[in-house]
Design brief:
mainly alpha; 2 domains; Permease; membrane; transmembrane; AI-2E-like; transmembrane helix; about 85% helix; about 0% strand
Length: about 350
Amino acid sequence: MINNTIYTPKQQRILLITSLIIIAGFMIVGLRNYISAFLGAGILYVVLRPWFAALALKRGWKRPLVAALLILFSFVVIVMPFLTLSLLLADRIQQYSQNPQQILDLIHKGEDLTGFKITSPQNIRQIVQQGASYASRLLPSVAGGLLDFIIIIGLMFFTMYFMFVQNEAFHNGLQKYLPFKRDTQRELGESLKNNVNANVLGQGLVSLVQGILTGLTLWIFGVPDPAFWGVVAFFLAFIPVLGTPLVWGPAALIQLSQGNTGQGVGILLVGAIVITNIDNLLRIMLARRMGDIHPLVTLAGIVLGVPIFGILGLVIGPLLVSYFIVLMGVFERENRQQRDEVARDEAKVEEVASSEK
């Protein structure tokens, strides 16, 4: 059969790859507002896969039934509580942004206590409004986009369903199309597992405990609205080092500025001794069981991921940093192996040449 194409095989290959990249680019642009759905499906898949393996693979339950049960469980136990906390925080942030006088009063009390003037009221008001606007963009808002929210949740569970039901095809597809060797894929999979375990399960548990302890501490020592500040502490606890001190520290200063010395000192003692040490103890215990991620990787990942992916950036950001480190290690190892192979080949050539002489 005569080939009438004007392209050489090499040109056809280049054009094929270019066409794939262009089409993939259009798909990414079209789905850019819903990328979080696919990322969320991947995270939930890693979290729930041990349960799927235990029920569907070991006990022989029907895969569609197991997938449906896991979706129902994740919606009731994971998505709804997290969404409720996010909406509560977003609503209160909007209130503070529209009426920053409460925050201004607290700052003035802190200035009176320390004798240090921070800045002008106009600048503080602007900072509060900008911060509230930024924080609101990071949190899901049903009122602001009900249709988008429904689509994201639907896509996430739809994707997760087929990831479970067609488990083998999903894994084979990854192994087939990822441009990495089998050892590299294994390292990336282990890094994903460690990050999800550390930053979703482990860090989520640590943050929940710290948020509850912070809210109880503020309630015991008479700080107004302790439930709200406990929710704030829950989200801030995902940030290493800083975390909950950003809540109980200012609360203690406010109590001291109001002349409540006992309450202020009590909050400082409980925060520094109990809440902080509970954080360190839980992190050490969970790091051995759920994956040990360096705090610097987590912090850098959060700074990178949250502005791009919103709340999911708490997991996606550290994962990107971990993947970068893994791929750099793979690049270094393969380069070293290639240099060793070249050195061995050169040594063989020199040996053959010397023997011929």
